[in-house]
Amino acid sequence: MILSMNWISDFVDLSGLDKLDLIAKFSLSTAEVENEIYQKGSDLSGIVVAEIKSVEDHPESKKLHLLKVDIGESELVDVVCGAPNVRVGMKTAFAKLGAQIGDITITPRKLAGYTSNGMCCSEKELGLSDNNDGIMDICEDVALGTDLKDIYQIDDIIFEVDNKSLTNRPDLWGHYGIAREFAAIAGRELKPLPVADLKAYENLPKVDLKIEDTLCQRYSCLQFGNISKHVSPMNMRIRLYYCGMRGLNFLADLTNYLMLEMGQPMHAFDSRKVEKIRIKRFDKPFKFQTLDGVEREIDEETLMICNDNTPVAIAGIMGGLDSEIVESTSTLTLESATFDASSIRKSTVRLAHRTDASMRYEKCLDPEMTVVAIARFVKLLTEIDPGATVVSSLTDEYPYHYDTVSLSFEKAFVDKYTGINIDSATIEKTLKALGFDVTVAGDSFSVTVPSWRATKDVTMKADIIEEITRIYGYDNFDINTAAVPLYPVRAAQEKSDEDRIKDILVKRYSLHELHSYVWAYYDEYKALGIEVEDNINLVSSVNPNIKTIRKSIVPTQLCQVKYNTGYSTDFGVFEIGRVVEGLKDDGLCNERKKLCITLYSKTKEMETLYFELRDMLAVICDDLKHESISFQTKEATHSYQHPKNLNTIYLGGKELGEMGIVNATVSKKIDKKANIVYAEIDITDFSEIKNKSIQYQEASKFPEIEIDLSFVSDTYQPIANAITNADCPLIKNVKIVDTYTDEAGKSITLRILFSHPERTLTKEEVLQVVNGIVDELDGKNIKLKNGLPM
Amino acid sequence: MAEKTTALKQAFSEALLTVTNMEELEKIRVEYLGKKGLVTELMQEMKYLSPEEKKVFGQAVNVLKNEVNDAITQKREELKQKEIELENSRMPVFDLSMPPVLDRGSYHPITLVQRQCEEVFRSMGFAIEDYSEIVTDYECFEALNIPKNHPARDMQDTYYLDNGQLLKSHTSAAQNAIYKKYKDALYNEGKPINAIFPGRCFRNEATDACHENTFFQMEGVMVDKNISISNLIFFMKTMLSEVFQKDIKVRLRPGFFPFVEPGFELDISCLICGGEGCPSCKHSGWLELCPCGMIHPEVLKAGGIDPEEYTGFAFGLGLTRLAMMKYGVKDIRDLNSGSLKSLAQFTDDK
To answer: What is the spatial distance between Cα A551 and Cα A528, in angstroms, rounded to a whole number?
Structure first.
């Protein structure tokens, strides 16, 4: 909302104060002021009232005229002017030689052979309105040569408040409410609003009015006749223009002026079109033409102002074209009403049409304001157009009253909330300045919230704190740490596991952490031949590509790998992120947190890469849980999985996730020459596994025996089983030292380390264990390759 | 016989001079001291001599033998030394001007700023909480004093899911659960609720250099018997000064958020110009950083905490914004781009 400092100063005397400083304080105490502040009129000087004494046609130009103008000096001034509305005897705004208009300095200037010693100006040229139809037509009875700034309020400070910071303040949608804030901030008195006494019209007939819907909280109206003015006074037009409002005709300007002054939207109907005002909703949708000429679809939920059964306006949003004031209008009906805020808001959304009026109604306007606004309207109307008459008595239906809000609190409450000591007198003075009714008894306060703050904004004690502290000024606060008891705070296991996993992957394996979106990437999946699997969907999205929530990070990570293929011949990425694995029994999403790793390589064999990934997972498990990882082959079920080497990952008997190779169809689309492997594990399941603590074993002081055995076997699993089955406490370590393939097939050479903590081992006891292992394997047709080494 | 020893010694000395490596030395050793060597042969000749002569000659041969032995040992040491020197001289001088191969991994910049913030709050006794990304309408709105049809719901364009849940539009969605988790300890043991909860948030809006539909925030709350606005300003100022590693000036302005009362917009002195005014703060000297406020009594009540007895503050720091400010990221979309060219730069930042 754009605000005028002159307008504010109508209601509070701010003389002698630095206005820019006050605006800065307003920003800190009330609502955010935008950075740009405009000093209107500061670039305008030397503009005076002049009278056109003679008009001659320019001999060579159809448009130009040669004028002699009187600027109250001894000599008439010769001027060349192109305006169409020049006439003898007209008073206009004249920029003298040396005058300043914006960046331009007026100098004698040749126009088609004649010298112009100054310039007659339009309102637009002077920045006073958007009227550029011709030069200014000054009606005021003032001496020629009078500086224009002496008759009009041209100098003004204009600033804009962010509308978002006013959402909860219906009282700040007009200058009067803003002036109240300035008064409180500056410690000056707020002047009462000048209004007419409506009692004078009590004997006139009432308007036929009936509210037939609970969405209308209050409807007040008054009828006028005999309005002769069509153009608004210049000062009014300047203010409206400065505040961003387009000038129309006098009546429209006046309703707009009232809205900007008090925050109360008003509407003027041609009385002939609204003989029986009824406020209601309709059973069926229909079309309705608003005064901007647009035909709109009105539904059953939208509240309408009607003439009996004919809709004439969309309540709180916009009037209809048919009931608009026209040239022939002799009497008009002025509406000043309040409606249910959320109904207006929803109608606005459905109609996709937001207006200055609806924007205010959405904020819960104070119904007490409707009649005051009419009284103010009458005051301004009769001042500007003394011939205008009121032809009805005030007609006012007020079915919905907000409750009066009264609150009591102790000073100790304020002290506790603020953490500082604001004295009682300051509290009282501040609240009173903001219009609160305050009674103080010792340290106890009883306050009644003014109606304009009681529609939703101030409802409880904590709201009062804000009123006190914002005017007190947060910059004036002493700041202190909290006095609270201390207790140890243990880091959550999952959090600490995540941090350590990230460290291992980044520091030890040089992987890169990436973030991806939580939904499937339709286009990217399609390009890679990855199917978007059914899952929970978003109901609405501004981007049609964002719809289905992902079940796994793997596909989104593969899209990122594709994006990065040019980065390096080899890289690895990971993410700890969320997926949804369908719905749980209670209908809520089964959201899981997953670690996903993908390795990409153009230089390594698939097997090497696969084992690199396996070892990363094993290191994570061993480092964080001191627990060995194990695997079990499973069947591929997703489009990106390779049918072979897909394994379920187990830790401590718990299924954690899977590790696999990317299906060739997908991987060829990412990169024809690269090998790509991935793993995904459930972080929550992982972190629930208890960390086995380290069991220290004293190093044996006696000689150890190492035995190398080679078996012909396709897999290590049976050998590992045989060693486990031997269950021999003397076996301290088993290492794979070689694997090779020859005519006998694949062979695995392992080195078993035997030791005893208290004595030297004998060959016999070691051989006995080794024979046991060899015999068991022999029974499974896994032969020892080169005989026993000892 | 004496001539023989002298001649042999002379011959040995000359032969030794020609030795240049271990093999030649070994050859000479065998030639002189071997079983059939020249010195050994000379010993053989003693058996033809008289006892007196034997004594003299024996001594002379022994001396010769020792001398030859010593000379060979000495020569061996010399050769060894030469070999080491040779080996040393063969060592090339390495070109340290070649650029190092770092091959470092990288953290996501959000991880880095999040860790920095967590560290500050952990040091002040705050627990670090995690929360789901998909929440209920109750958690995201109702429990935060944002009833249905409240205009505040228009302020955030929310991603609703077809089961009625939604992608959380702010980290405040975790507040209710945090209060419920800790309220028993607050009531029974007098433990204040100090917690931060970083998390990913979602807004249904079109993306551009300044707007993302997926971003990170970090919420913080502190609840106890006498938590005040003064405390709130202290914690915000301290935390931000620690995060930015310099004294940060803060100021509060009234801000409207349904879940706090009073609610504030917190501005910090511009990090670029320090408050003098520059293009990045639009010449105001201040940057709007973080909404905060005293927790609304209705929000405490919804969390099972009596607002008459307890007060608290809450704040919501934009981690994404913080990361952008800290590292000079100009396009917010870089963060979720997955582009290693952009993101692999964040190797570490302790």
So the answer is: 17
